[in-house]
Amino acid sequence: MEFEKFKAMQFPRDILVGHKVLHMLPSLIPPYSKNRSVLILAGNTTYQIAGEEIEQMLLESGYKVTAIKAGEANRENLISAEKKVSKIMPGIIIGVGGGSKIDLTKKIAYDTGIPFISVPTSPSHDGIASPRATIKDGTTVVSENAAMPVAIVADTSVMVRAPFRYLTAGAADVISNITAVMDWRLANRIKGEEISSSAANLSEYAARELMEKAHMILPNVEESVWIVTKQILASGTAMAIASSSRPASGSEHLFSHAVEMAGSGKAIHGELCAIGTVVSMYLHGGDWKKIAEVFEKMRISIRAKDYGLDPETVINALATAHRIRPERYTILGESDLSYSASEKALEITGII
Ligand SMILES: [Zn+2]
């Protein structure tokens, strides 16, 4: 038989991470600035945090800069931002934000073919370096194909100003790779799904590093942001190698999305992933207590009620989470868990 296997991977070409790297951003623009036009997409707050400074630096370097402010990452905001971008047709788009602005930018970049730079203002999830975007569509939340950034500028002196909770949530999003990879291996054994060992190992390595360094993740410490961001970037590289979010998104993410769809209470993405990872590890028969201890050390609660989530919502979310992405096989299987099994798993793990 002839050899017919092939694979396409996309990686960022520049990654700047660390203290005050924002100042180096203008040096990345020349390859993308034929028409000297740059578009910045930010939110009201993230514009103040970093967008304005970027705009100033680029204006001083002689670029035409348009800054647009967008709201949350939903279909309406996406369409309206895409219209504005299509009118201007900038050489590059710079997405400035914690999560939703980066999601919008990477989706716009994917739809318009315009390259984009990711400038995270908080380390709250691994989407700052991944080719998937989470877009709200009515009451559902969909994860869609999106562009990989051509560059990532992760300034730790900016990100350290974000609430501490965002940092621990970002760490939890990376730690959740542990169960994501277990699900991937399971899908490989049961469904014959292709697995990339390099992507799986890198993804697990990122999670283990943060589990070991949980005691070093502290509020108002720039080095803590550095430690977490490095592994967020490693996680992004694993996804780039796999050309999919598979190494970093399994049953724990399906659960997290299911809770989000039901109305996530006060929890942010990484916190729901933390809860999801503990219960998924329990379902896998692994050492869920060790994961729960790590989250406790990092001061992430895995108790549903701390986020205003009632037991009913969480039980149903776990029981039905497999429906969200039926093609992604995980420990949650292909039919709903029974209500009582779901309830029991969440009770044993102390989530409800
Ligand atoms: Zn995530």
Q: Could you characterize the architecture of this molecule?
A:
With 352 residues, the chain is an alpha/beta fold. The chain has a domain at 164-348: Dehydroquinate synthase-like - alpha domain (Dehydroquinate synthase-like, alpha domain, Up-down Bundle), CATH 1.20.1090.10. The chain is 48% helix and 13% strand. The protein contains 13 helices and eight strands. It has helices at 44-60, 75-88, 100-112, 156-159, 164-175, 177-191, 197-212, 222-242, 251-261, 269-284, 288-297, 311-320, 339-348, and strands spanning 14-18, 37-42, 64-69, 92-97, 116-120, 132-137, 140-145, 151-155. The strands form two sheets. A six-stranded parallel β-sheet has the order 1-8-5-4-2-3, sandwiched between helices. Strand 4 (92-97), helix 3 (100-112) and strand 5 (116-120) form a beta-alpha-beta unit. Helix 6 (177-191) runs antiparallel to helix 7 (197-212).
The CATH topology assignment of the domain at 164-348 is Dehydroquinate synthase-like, alpha domain
Number of helices: 13
Level-2 CATH architecture of the domain at 164-348: Up-down Bundle
Q: Helix- and strand-based class?
A: alpha/beta
Strand order of the largest sheet: 1-8-5-4-2-3
Taken in chain order, the helices and strands follow as: EEHEHEHEEEEHHHHHHHHHH
Question: CATH-wise, what's the superfamily of the domain at 164-348?
Answer: Dehydroquinate synthase-like - alpha domain
Overall strand count: 8
